[in-house]
Write a structure and sequence with these properties.
Blueprint: E1 3-6, H1 13-17, E2 26-27, E3 33-37, E4 40-48, E5 51-54, H2 58-68, H3 75-82, H4 87-95, H5 106-115, H6 121-135, E6 138-140, E7 145-147, H7 160-164, H8 171-183, H9 197-204, H10 212-223, H11 233-242, H12 256-270
Antiparallel strand pairs: 1-5, 2-3, 3-4, 4-5, 6-7
Amino acid sequence: METQINIQDDFDLEKIATSGQCFRVRKFDDGTYRFITGSHILYIRPIEGSLYLASCSQKEWREIWETYFDLTRDYAGLRKRAGGKNLFLQKTMEYGRGLRVLRQEPWEMLITFIISQRKNIPAISKSVGMLAQKYGARVSTAWETVSLFPTPEELDSVSIEELSECRLGYRAAYVRDAVDKVRSETLDLTAIAGYEDERLFQELLQVHGVGKKVANCVCLFGYGRSARVPVDVWISRVIQEECKGQNPFPAFGEDAGIMQQYAFYYEKKFWH
């Protein structure tokens, strides 16, 4: 089934796919992009202007993918609202127009950003892909056979040594701890979705190896907490070098995490 979708707001598949927030997107030669969230797989390609062709029903688009792509938020309006507050961030918004902060599956985000520590994007993608291929369920589509991200149950009996075979290094022990905490419901990823931002953040910190940056990534990309700002080496450079040591993000309130994503995307492209 294919459905024609009309997206009037900022929406650039290439920028979204390469923005460092999702690590299992695939681009095909005809311009089709594949996205995965949970057990849902989407193939989407631009037709012309604001029109796209998506491999799902209108119902699935509304119920799954509108949330995933954060399409209920007006990014063009956000950019207009934020314009002029900070000259550097104004430049990053203009360059990154079309970016969206994805609302991804919290479990996958927890494990993915644990894995991301001290790794570049290709290395993260490689490890996440190996983990899915080795332990995730396989689904056949018209395009390919896809390995879903493994659930806590599917990783329950996997040892640290076996996890290490997915090029996780010292992070294998952190992933194992996350599996144990979620399986024992010491960390209930569904229940904490109802917590306010700071309490959610604190709950995530109980996983061994999850620090402030990783916890904020899970808050932002897994739970849609758009005020949270993950600070990694790139955002530290923005604060120290582009903004003369003054953190510009708190001034943007609930949009702060989205502004962080524009800045991250820009800085990764232009840093030498």
